[in-house]
Amino acid sequence: MAGEDISRIMDKLDAMTRELGSIGPRLDSLEDAFRCARQLESRVVVVESSIMAVVENCKAIQEQKEKHRIPWQNIIPTVLAGAIMALLGAIFALVLR
Q: How far is the C-alpha of 84 from the C-alpha of 87, rounded, in Å?
């Protein structure tokens, strides 16, 4: 029994040694993964700030556009109403003659 116990313990120690030996490369790859993740995170931050700058520029352009926009929706009905009034005035002038 003691020989079987020692054999089992030795097998467990061998398995643990193999497991510990394989941890080193996995840790290296884990460090690489974290480094890549940090690089990608910094790239995402740069892209996000670029997008926000574009959004701000678009807002500024839209504000400038609205400042200089001619309100055609108000001008066209006014011109039409003025033309109709002038036409009615001309008709009344002809009728009253």
A: 5
**pLDDT single digits (tens) 47-79:** 888 888 888 888 888 888 888 776 667 777 888
Verdict on whether the full-model pTM lies above 0.85: no
Res 12: pLDDT: 81
CA separation for the pair 95, 80 (Å, rounded): 22
CA gap 56, 20 in Å, rounded: 53
Render 15-55 in DSSP notation, one character per residue: HHHHHHHHHHHHHHHHHHHHHHHHHHHHHHHHHHHHHHHHH
Question: Mean pLDDT over residues 22-41, rounded?
Answer: 76
Integer Cα distance of 10 and 46 in angstroms: 54
Q: How far apart are CA 30 and CA 38, in angstroms?
A: 12
